[in-house]
Write a structure and sequence with these properties.
249 residues, mainly alpha, 3 domains, 3-stranded antiparallel β-sheet, two-stranded antiparallel ribbon, 8 helices
Amino acid sequence: MVMTSSATNPPAPLSGAAFIRFVLDVIDVLRRSEPHGLDEAGFLQQYFAGNPPSTPQLQQHWWGEFKRAAKYSNGHFDNGEDGWAFVRARPGRQPGQHFYHVVAVRDGNRARVTQHAASLQRLEPFTTRRWLTQTRSRMRVRAAEALALLEAARQSGNTQLESTGQAILNEFIMLSPRLAAINFDTGLVTQDLYQLAQSADPRIQRLVGSRIRRALQSARRLERDVNSVAEQVLRLGQIYRYGSLPALP
């Protein structure tokens, strides 16, 4: 931890080894703050051992460094690097207030989750809403990409573009907390199952080969059902709006 300087002007942003030490200190402070987490005032109190900066400029500087540290740690966590934490925030009751929590810390090749379920229960409703918003945005971009490829294929007669656009529309993502817990990630797409099913590694075939094939068969059926439902919904929507059937992509 550090003590505040008497200077009123914010110092330069931390860099190099000094920034790394700061990030590790932030992770330590956050871990000790569970299950309540830390907002700006709480962080400044904890990090500066009860003697936080007195000027708004210095407070803003150190809070900005805190958020930069959280982002930096998340990046190394995503890369699977030992000792780094995955940090998330939830909104507080005051406008602009956010409480930050350590969700998990990399321990070797695995993610060791926080032992405070209460903090995760506070985080989950907020992150669910945010995740749905981000996912919707990503899916809109993905769908637009596919439709643009199909339109380019229609105009040029390029069958490769047609195949790529259709493959994107047919992608199916399996979101499962159990699958996510393996790598602390989002889950699988059906292409992951294809790769596992085609693996020549005898260990994979012996341990999970039959299960992978059954899961792949289920995924294929679900893909067909979802695509069929999408076509029917589109047709019904066009009928109700225009009284005619649409030209499907």
